[in-house]
Amino acid sequence: MKIFPKILITLIALVLFSSCKEKLAEPILFFENYDLKSGKYRLEGHQIEGKIIDDFKNFYIDDPETLIKIQKQWIFKYKSGIQPCGYGYSIVLKENNKIIKQTLVNIDCEYMSGWIYFPKEYLTDHKNHFVKMN
Fold it and tell me: Measured between alpha carbons, how far is 133 from 89 in angstroms, rounded to an integer?
């Protein structure tokens, strides 16, 4: 009967460790320290392939209040597992209509360029603020 507690503890440890994500050496700030209140910035999403968010193939957000919320949210701390999903969107940050930052994301498999964990909510939470582009 002494084996049962050891097996139970081993199973619990396996479940806990298998669900943990590997941390990055340093958090990655997509928006760095940009002054998004200035109104000079615009975040764009351009569909590359695969599933889209509702019917938004290409969209942008230029509302400073929403961009500041996203800036606080988009602090990446974890690695993603390597997956064969491809990329659904190209995400572009522009200042005065000039590209200053760009990455690729997959919302289904929840990762971005560099195998960094990108929760789908980082985009879907803000879809009410998406403006469609032609």
Answer: 14
